[in-house]
């Protein structure tokens, strides 16, 4: 199908993404590599990132919801997929039909799955989730032994994995993370689990980077793999970088006199005659409205302020006395010349984390995948 031209886009640098995957792979040694691709692969595009990661050779893809896993299967991706989120009874048939591994953290749900599997004469692969301090999902450590034994007793369930999730691995405070790791390690040592091939996993990005003792058999780092986990990567991760940029083309230019209000509510008044350009992307695409009168963009290698409220489909930039033309490329996120607007800069300005910014971009703005490989072939 022909792509409809659009003057704003997200650019995903696949060469950089593969480089990030290689850096993580080197860091984790022989551990299996599960790439979480939930929330549209942190905004990078679920199916495309899933395909590239599968080709690269990640061992697992991780998703939060059944629907994300089904989308990956429908895209022809055959690597093991683990659904992290709690399952609901009406999802059981699809979980099994699409050959998904999924998480159980209650006997009640385990029994529902088992009964369904017995009815259709199929087995399914289960990961048991143990809560060691997140208080989200997962059986508490004190009931884990009983729960694991129960799962093992149900003949249609194949217990292939056991995992937990860190609550504080992203902060310098290591005490609680260590306690979680210790509690989890005790469970792994339960006598009846010895000699099994359980895939034991716990590490998110923070733990993959900082706690090599938490890698066990598999790690699940997403932010690290997408390259934006560190504001400044330490030397052992040098070369790691975000592969996500947002760009647009200037759609309009006008000279505005002194004392004129710009955009809805006239929240910005020009102090002198100036040049105002319009950029065709807005909060309807997921560009945060909270950047109104605060954010900036790059044009012709220079930084210019956003003036007035960001609209649903466009916003205005004050370029002062600089020459800027309709059609010029605008960088809203990423590098242009020597300048760069990073996810971290934007997140700090907005009082949030990079994840939320990435996830807010929707499908109205197209994603373009740049691949150095395709230029040379
Ligand atoms: C989202 C998620 C991850 C990835 O966490 P990052 O810190 O973004 O790497 C890992 N494990 C589970 C269970 C998750 O839900």
Short summary of the structure?
With 377 residues, the protein is of the alpha/beta class.
Describe what this molecule looks like in 3D:
By secondary structure, this protein is an alpha/beta fold. It has 13 helices and 21 strands. It has helices at 14-28, 38-42, 46-56, 66-74, 92-97, 107-120, 141-153, 175-188, 205-210, 223-226, 343-350, 354-360, 372-376, and strands at 8-13, 32-36, 60-63, 81-83, 101-104, 124-131, 139-140, 157-163, 199-203, 218-219, 244-249, 252-256, 261-262, 268-269, 274-279, 296-299, 302-307, 315-320, 329-336, 339-341, 367-370. Strands 1, 11, 12, 15, 16, 17, 18, 19, 20 and 21 form a 10-stranded mixed β-sheet that branches. Strands 2-3-4-5-6-8-9-10 form an 8-stranded parallel β-barrel, surrounded by 5 helices. Helix 11 crosses helix 12 (354-360). It binds pyridoxal-5'-phosphate. The site of pyridoxal-5'-phosphate has 11 residues, from helix 10.
Relevant terms:
alpha/beta; single chain; 377 residues; 8-stranded parallel β-barrel
Residue stretches low in confidence (pLDDT < 50, at least 5 long) are none
Overall helicity: 25-40%
Annotation field: number of helices: 13
Radius of gyration: 24 Å
Strand content: 25-35%
| Ligands bound to this protein structure | pyridoxal-5'-phosphate
Shape: elongated
- Assembly type of the chains comes to single chain
In angstroms, what separates the terminal alpha carbons? 22 Å
* Secondary-structure class: alpha/beta
Strand element count: 21
Mean pLDDT: 96
Largest sheet: 10 strands, mixed
């Amino acid at each position: 199908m022909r792509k409809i031209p659009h003057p704003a886009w997200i650019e995903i640098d696949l060469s950089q993404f593969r480089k990030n995957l290689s850096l993580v792979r080197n860091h984790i040694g022989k551990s299996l590599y599960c790439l979480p691709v939930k929330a549209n692969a942190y905004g990078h595009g679920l199916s495309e990132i899933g395909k590239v990661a599968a080709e690269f050779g990640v061992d697992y893809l991780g998703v939060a919801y059944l629907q994300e896993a089904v989308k990956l299967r429908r895209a022809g991706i055959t690597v093991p997929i683990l659904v992290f989120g709690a399952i609901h009874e009406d999802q059981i048939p699809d979980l099994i039909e699409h050959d998904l591994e999924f998480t159980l953290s209650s006997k009640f749900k385990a029994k529902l799955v088992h009964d369904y599997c017995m009815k259709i004469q199929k087995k399914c692969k289960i990961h048991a989730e143990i809560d060691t301090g997140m208080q989200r999902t997962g059986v508490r450590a004190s009931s884990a032994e009983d729960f694991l034994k129960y799962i093992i007793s149900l003949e249609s369930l194949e217990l292939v994995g056991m995992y937990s999730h860190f609550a504080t691995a992203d902060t310098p405070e290591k005490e609680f993370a260590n306690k979680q790791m210790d509690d989890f390690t005790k469970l792994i040592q339960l006598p009846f689990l010895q000699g099994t091939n359980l895939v034991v996993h716990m590490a998110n990005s923070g733990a993959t980077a900082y706690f090599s003792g938490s890698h066990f058999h598999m790690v699940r780092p997403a932010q690290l793999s997408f390259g934006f986990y560190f504001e400044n990567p330490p030397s052992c991760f040098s070369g790691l970088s975000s592969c996500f940029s947002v760009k647009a083309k200037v759609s309009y230019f006008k000279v505005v006199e002194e004392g004129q209000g710009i955009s809805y509510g006239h929240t910005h008044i020009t102090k002198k005659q100036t040049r105002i350009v319009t950029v065709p992307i807005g909060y309807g695409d997921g560009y945060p409205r909270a950047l109104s009168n605060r954010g900036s963009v790059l044009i012709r290698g220079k930084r210019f302020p956003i003036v007035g409220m960001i609209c649903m489909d466009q916003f205005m930039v004050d370029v002062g006395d600089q020459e800027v033309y309709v059609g010029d490329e605008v960088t809203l996120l990423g590098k242009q010349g020597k300048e760069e607007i990073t996810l971290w800069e934007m997140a700090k300005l907005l009082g949030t984390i990079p994840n939320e910014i990435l996830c807010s971009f929707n499908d109205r703005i197209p994603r373009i995948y740049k691949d150095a490989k395709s230029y040379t072939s």
